[in-house]
Amino acid sequence: MKLLATATALCLVSAAALANEPTEKDAIAMAERGAAMVKAKGKEEVMKRISAKDPDFVQGSLYIDMRDVKTGIVLAHPYNPSIVGKDLTDVPDANGKKYRRGIIELAAAKGKGWVDYQYKNPTSGKIEPKTTYILLVDGVVLEAGLYKK
């Protein structure tokens, strides 16, 4: 009986954890919040808030980063500040995909959309499949990604 109660409790905890996982809607909403702030307060303000891990732009494994659409240079990243100021456009993911080039091309062509690739999850520390919603605003690309389970 004790084993059944433990198993039931674990299932409930797992279901609760899954319920708190970010969704595609959350990623879109976060990118749109960023775009609205870029328009209202400027790119520099959003860059500061991303770097400071502002809860509007960083919620666990869901966060936005920012890159210049023309140069590909990373302007802000909450979990990997060492890449800020760098052009990593042609650096591939673990599977050899030049996803950053894909992000820039999609942003330039359509202004928004989704890109799939592999990236290090800041929560697990592991390379995992990720899908990222990208949104072009005022010459910068806001990227809000979800790790796929």
TrEMBL record:
<keyword id="KW-0732">Signal</keyword>
<feature type="signal peptide">
    <location>
        <begin position="1"/>
        <end position="19"/>
    </location>
</feature>
<protein>
    <submittedName>
        <fullName>Cache domain-containing protein</fullName>
    </submittedName>
</protein>
<dbReference type="InterPro" id="IPR033480">
    <property type="entry name" value="sCache_2"/>
</dbReference>
<keyword id="KW-1133">Transmembrane helix</keyword>
<keyword id="KW-0472">Membrane</keyword>
<dbReference type="Pfam" id="PF17200">
    <property type="entry name" value="sCache_2"/>
</dbReference>
<keyword id="KW-1003">Cell membrane</keyword>
<feature type="domain" description="Single Cache">
    <location>
        <begin position="24"/>
        <end position="101"/>
    </location>
</feature>
<keyword id="KW-0812">Transmembrane</keyword>
